[in-house]
Structures are given as structure tokens and as C-alpha cells.
Amino acid sequence: QVQLVESGGGLAQAGGSLRLSCAASARPFSSYGMGWFRQPPGKEREFVATISRSGITTLHADSVKGRFTISRDNANNTVYLQMNSLKPEDTAIYYCAATTGVIPTSPRSYNSWGQGTQVTVSS
């Protein structure tokens, strides 16, 4: 089981930016693909982005493509989600997750989850 701790959430205005971080206890961290998911109020958890073990391959949901960027630093056991041009509909609890799969988009393919960090975007 990988321990994951998210940080960087908070309140932002529409059009603004936030950067989420997720620190992992995995050893080696590069053994795991990583993903970001979000759960808007009253809705189911949805895929945001995923990144391969090496960081070479990424996949972003259509709703965030061109605005959000997932990246990772294997030397520091951290995955990031840079969020630009934020919209009120980006308001959600954001979760990072670890997988032994290959850039899966289904939450069922992820084995470990963080506790989540709240992102609120005001209009």
C-alpha cells in the first residue's frame, strides 16, 4: 500500500491557477503510474489526468485538456497537477492515486488513494 498526501488546494478565482502536489511513500516511486481524480459536490469521482511511471506518457480528460498538466518528479516521490484557467466547474475534492497499470482512466484500476484536497473556484 502506498501512502499518498495531497496539498496545494484552496480557493481561487475563475481564470486563476493552483498547483496541487502529492507526496508518495512508494519505494521506488517510479514503479507506479499516478493519476489525479476529482469529485465535484454531489457527483461521482471522475478522471482528471494520469502519468506513466517514467513520466513520458500523460493523458488528460477532455474537460481539462489545455488547462491542466500532470507531471512527476521521481527523485522526490512527488506528482503534480498544474491547474490554469480555472473555472467554477473545476470545484471539487481532488485526489491523487497510484496504480500498477498503464495510464488507466478508471478509478477501479488504482490501488492507493490520498485523502483529497479541496479546490474551490469562485466566479
Give a quick summary of the entry.
The protein has 123 residues and is an all-beta fold.
Give your account of this protein's structure:
- The strands form two sheets. Strands 2, 4, 5, 6, 9, 10 and 11 form a seven-stranded mixed β-sheet that branches. Strands 1-3-8-7 form a four-stranded antiparallel β-sheet, with no helix packed on it.
- It starts with a strand and ends with a strand.
- It has strands at residues 4-7, 10-13, 18-24, 33-39, 46-51, 58-60, 68-73, 78-83, 92-99, 112-113, 117-122.
- It is built from no helices and eleven strands.
- It is mainly beta.
- It is globular and about 40 Å long.
Gyration radius from CA atoms, angstroms = 13 Å
Oligomer: single chain
Q: Distance between the terminal alpha carbons, to the nearest Å?
A: 39 Å
Can you give the mean pLDDT? 96
Main beta sheet: 7 strands, mixed
Pattern of helices and strands? EEEEEEEEEEE
Number of beta-strand segments = 11
Structural class: mainly beta
State which percent range the strand residues make up. Answer: over 45%
Helix content range: under 10%
Number of helices: 0
